[in-house]
UniProtKB/TrEMBL annotation:
GO MF: metallocarboxypeptidase activity; zinc ion binding
GO biological process, one term: fibrinolysis
InterPro entries: CARBOXYPEPT_ZN_1 (IPR057246), CARBOXYPEPT_ZN_2 (IPR057247), CPB2 (IPR033849), M14A-like_propep (IPR036990), M14A_act_pep (IPR003146), Peptidase_M14 (IPR000834)
Designated name of the protein: Carboxypeptidase B2 (plasma)
């Protein structure tokens, strides 16, 4: 070999061997749509036997033909996983080529960076920051906001609900919004903060929020799963945690899916008794202190709470009961009309698409969810919102998208709450002589 050729080979080798050069070794999120039952089986196998995380669907039992799967593949499994896919003719797209960069972007709290231009509500916050915000919000608004301690988490963190109450008319009705059941869905707590901020800033400025707050108290639980949320902030590889952090009896696995732990058809569909699984329903209904605290509070307030909304992500969907059965809810048409109107307004104002319908038929059949439980408790207007996006960034929605995602969801909450008022408020009292 001539000297220049040796140099050429050597120099290129040194580039190739540089750490991080080879994209095959970085973490990625793949999008795969299985075409046949054989491909479904292979994907199920890959997601259980290799170090991967299913972003969507949440559990491999929901993988089926023609349904998009979003699979997080860490760098060290990348070559093997892609080889298996290729061997079986399963094509994939790279959804996110560098999720770690996006994760860091979400964690970067550039409040000290004045040029960032984003407000407090346009950033994601650590659990400690959210607790501080809860305290500050209650302290700064003593006449309208109260922080109510409704219980504590498995790791003994407090569960605070903010009660927004703008007048003290007798027989006031109420609505409830909870966020952060699932730890990795960071846009959800961000929405609860956004909603409270909007309520406090636009009462008597925006007609819809004014009408709502004049007629209802609002209970907001910003983080239902504080232990899980905290955990997702502690290391990049923990960013995908979904459940709470309770240790199973065998001590072998951690975490119960709080949205499978409610006492409605508990443990039957779309859930697992295996504590190692993402959709573990726990040892018995309301076994988890977080679910029990919410259930106890709602049981105590069931005569006033008329509207229940629980905030999740991602996929842009408005879901209503039932998820545990394909039976139609008794007020199905009212619920459908409400979400349809919310989706139409979002389309009109923000040009974004939300799908909607009863959970079992629209998403998947599933027992133990908080929406069905609240509905069966008697809260006849009960919804699960799945916020942005539809998989472009998934759980890694950049901070610059928070305002868009939250404004859409806010419009939906207001649309539905106003409709609930129209359906439930007694018509003006005409005095007869
Ligand atoms: O599976 C869930 O808990 C929710 N989807 S998520 O991707 N955020 O995990 C949907 C819940 C819908 N309602 C019920 N299953 N009851
Ligand atoms: Zn969720």
């Amino acid at each position: 070999m001539s000297t220049p050729l040796i140099w050429f080979v050597f120099m290129n080798l040194s580039i190739l061997l540089k750490p991080g050069y080879c994209t095959e070794t970085s973490d990625q999120v793949l999008s795969i749509t299985p075409q046949t039952q054989e491909q479904v089986d292979i994907l199920r196998n890959v997601s259980t036997h290799y170090e991967t995380v299913l972003w969507q669907p949440v559990s491999n039992e929901y993988i089926s033909t023609q349904v998009q799967v979003h699979l997080y593949v860490p760098g060290n499994s990348s070559v093997t996983v892609k080889a298996i896919l290729q061997k079986h003719g399963i094509t994939h797209k790279v959804l996110l080529a560098n999720p770690n960069v996006l994760t860091e972007m979400q964690m970067k709290n550039d409040s000290t960076e004045p040029r960032s231009g984003s407000t407090f509500y346009e950033r994601y916050h650590t659990l400690e920051e959210i607790y501080d915000w809860i305290n500050r919000t209650a302290q700064d608004n003593p006449r309208t906001v109260k922080a109510i301690l409704i219980g504590s988490s498995y790791e003994k963190r407090p569960l605070y609900v903010l009660k927004l109450s703008f007048n003290d008319r007798p027989n006031r009705k109420a609505m409830w919004i909870d966020c952060g059941i699932h730890a990795r869905e960071w846009i959800s707590p961000a929405f609860c903060l956004w909603f409270v901020h909007h309520s406090l800033s636009f009462y008597q400025q925006n007609s819809e929020i004014t009408r709502i707050l004049d007629s209802m108290d609002v209970y907001v639980l910003p983080v239902m799963n504080p232990d899980g949320y905290k955990y997702t902030w502690t290391a990049i590889k923990r960013r995908w945690w979904r459940k709470n952090r309770s240790i199973s009896k065998s001590g072998f696995c951690v975490g119960v899916d709080l949205n499978r732990n409610f006492d409605v058809d508990w443990g039957i569909k779309g859930s697992s008794q295996n504590p190692c699984e993402e959709i573990n329903c726990g040892p018995f209904p309301e076994s988890e202190p977080e679910a029990q605290a919410v259930a106890n509070f709602l049981r105590r307030h069931k005569d006033t709470v008329q509207l229940y909304i629980t905030i999740h992500s991602y996929s842009q969907m408005f879901i209503f009961p039932y998820s545990y059965t394909f039976d139609q809810a008794e007020n199905h048409n009212d619920l459908l009309e409400m979400v349809q109107e919310a989706a139409q307004r979002i389309k009109r104002y923000y040009r974004n698409t939300y799908t909607y319908g009863p959970g079992a038929a629209t998403l998947y059949p599933c027992s133990g969810g908080s929406d069905d439980w609240a509905y069966k408790l008697g809260i006849k207007y009960s919804f699960t919102f799945e916020l942005q996006d539809r998989g472009e960034y998934g759980f890694l929605l950049p901070p610059s998208h928070i305002s868009g995602a939250c404004n859409e969801a806010l419009l939906a909450v207001k649309t539905i709450a106003v409709k609930v008022l129209e359906k439930t408020q007694a018509p003006a009292n005409h005095h007869t002589i």
